Every structure is written in structure tokens, then in C-alpha cells.
Amino acid sequence: MLSPLVSRVTYLRWACLVLGGALLMPYMMVGSMIGGLTGLSTASGDSLQPLVFLAVLPLVALTGLVLPVRALEVAAARSLLGAEIDPLPAGWASGRRSWGERRRTATWFTLHLGVGGVMAGLTLATVPFVVVAILLPVTGAPFDLWIVSTLRAVWWGGPLLGVVLLVALVYLTAGVGALLARSAPKLLGPSPAQRLALLEERVRRQAVRNGLARELHDSIGHALSVVTVQAGAAARVLDRDPVAVRAALGAIEESARAALEELDQVLGVLREQEDEPSTAPARTLADLSGLVQGTGAAAEVTGDLAAVPTEVSREAYRIAQESLTNALRHGTGPVRLALAVHDDHLELDVRNPAGRAPGRSGRGIGGMRERVTLLGGDFAAGPADGEWHVSLRLPLRP
To answer: ∠ CA 79-81-83 to the nearest 5 degrees?
Structure first.
């Protein structure tokens, strides 16, 4: 019955409570000295200690406000209570302590020392009494108490009471330790504002990682698709059309070079080399002609590409790149790309004759849909009327 409680966790939490009692002792000594100087100890006798205990708790709270005790308490809560306390955000941890953090630390410090003092006192009083009660049938009473003399008259009463008290102390310690472990993250961990800052930072990092994953998928996937298609075309006409072979090899070289540049840019961001930023420029619709030439697609572009905002132009280029990749992967025959820039929106349509039914859907279509959704546009992709097509509409002012 006691195995879940009499465990390493219970003993560690017991040690944390006793540590709180030990930290409370200097305050109790100061309180007792003040009581002795004022003559209260003579008038109150043994009843002074509870009064001193209550009187020093405000002093404990005051020192918790002033002294940097949070690091000590966090270490004790993590190692002894087993509490999971999130670290403060980098900006908050390196800055000055806020009054909200001071108040929460003072509350925890007072709770730890107050509850720890009570539990340490109960431990020091109960354990010797349990030993005396268990040995009572074979020893005499070392002190004159009515309950001791009564238990000694019934030989089994002392051991039974000792075991009951010991079990109660273990259960009480386990329960109080669990309550402290549950309270520690709220009082020693980040505040609601700090938790919100941590969450925003995690969301930002996740968004950056997702964006980098899309960049890698689109650029490397497109380059590999172009290399595969052009290498296959070159192999088929190797002996009879050297001009086509040279064109295919040029397209392979250009696609590979562009992929390496973009890979270097993404890896530079991943490594967070602020002192060595990547110099590879972000590709936009101004680079669309090279992209189309590498795939051999027929392109029709209307409107002024320079009028497209940089953010929209960059995302539209990536979507066009992935659209051509999907056309090469899921369709057959010549690819047709139509791009039209209007006053307030941009339209892109990529299609070619549909090939075999695609297998498991990859990340390309999902990545394109995410880009379009973030810009507030409309997106559609898939087979229709015997063709594989990707069509979208992006507002120029998202």
C-alpha cells in the first residue's frame, strides 16, 4: 500500500520540505531574539514559538521580494520536487526583474519556508515519538505523559499508534510535496505575458522552419525534376540531334546551379550565420524566363511584372516553379504557362496533358496552397478535362 508513496520522489520532496524548514531557522532565531529582548518570551513561555512563526512570515516574503532567491528555488523545485518549470524568455531572463516576478517569487519563497517549517517540525516531533511508541512494550516511558502511560497498559497499543503516525506522516508529506510541485510552475515559471512571448517565439520559429522546408522542396524538387526530364530527353536524341542534347545539358546545368545557390541561401538561414549572411538573391517573377526555358514550357506573360510587389512576386515565382514541377511529374506532353498581371491581382495557370494517375500526394501541392492562403488568394490543382492544371489568383496587395 505504501509503495507508491515511499519512493524516491517522496523522499526527495521530503528533503525539499526539510530544506524549507532549515531556511526558516535564521528567521525564527531572529524572531526569538526580538521576543527575548522585548520580554515576550518570559510572559508567553512555550506558546511564543507559533507566534514567532507567524510573525516572521512577512519578513520571509520581504526578503523574497528583495533577494535573488529565484534561481535557488527553481533549482530546488526541479531537482527535489520534480517540477517542470519552463525557462524565462531570453529577453526577460537577461533584463531587470519585474515586480510581478518578484511577487510570485516572494509568494513561493514564503510558501516553501512556511510549509517546510511546519513539516520539518512535524518530522522532528513525530519520528522520535514513533520510535518511543514502538519500543514502549519493552522499555519504560522516558517522559510522563498520560497517553504514554495509557498505551503502556496495553502492550500492542504503542506499536500500533507508532505505525499509524508514521503512515500518516508519509501520506501527509507526499500530499504536501505534490501540492508544492503543482504550484511551483505557476509561481516560479514564466508569467502569462512571458508564456505568450514564448509561444509567439515558438510559432515564429516554426513558421520559419516551415517556410524553409517549402523553399527547399520547391527549389530542389524542381531542379531534380528538370534534370530528370532533360536527361531523359537528351538520352533519347543523343545520336541524332546534338543541338537538342546541348540544350538539355545547358538546362540541366542552369537548374543545378540555381538549386545550389538557393540551397546555400537556405542553409545560411538554418545555421543563423548573422556574421556571414547569404548573398544569394531571392528569386522573383523577373527570373521567370530562365525558369520556363529550363523546363521547355511555352509561356505567355501579359502585364507589367515590375508592378508586382516583391513579396507577391517572390511567392508567385515559387508557386510557378512548383507548378512546373508538378506538370512534369503528373502530366505528359508540352507544358503551357499563362501569367497575367492585372491592376489589383495576378493570375497564373499551368497545364499540360494528364499522364498516369498520381500516387501518394507529396508536399508540393500543400506548400503551394499554404503560400496562396497566406497571401489571401484562391488556388486549385489537379486533373481536369484530360489535363493536369494548377491555377491561382493572388491579390497584389495582400
So the answer is: 85
pLDDT 10s digits, 347-384: 999 888 876 555 445 567 877 888 888 888 899 888 87
More confident call, 152 vs 287: 287
Q: Tell me the sheet residues that pair with 347.
A: 340, 393
Cell numbers of 189, please? Answer: 515559471
Q: What is the reported pLDDT for 360? A: 46
Picking from 203, 206, 215, 224, the residue whose alpha carbon sits closest to that of residue 364 is 215
**Do residues 248 and 234 make contact, with C-beta atoms less than 8 angstroms apart?**
yes
| Distance (Å, whole) CA 32 – CA 290 | 86
pTM: 0.52
Cell digits of residue 354: 494528364
CA-CA distance, 345 to 390, in Å (whole number)? 17
CA dist., res. 256 & res. 253, Å (int): 5
| Amino acid identity, position 101 | E
Please answer whether residues 299 and 337 qualify as being in contact, where contact means their C-beta atoms are separated by less than 8 angstroms.
yes
Q: Where are the alpha helices (DSSP H) in the chain?
A: 8-38, 40-44, 48-66, 70-76, 90-94, 99-134, 146-153, 157-188, 192-236, 242-271, 288-295, 310-330, 364-374
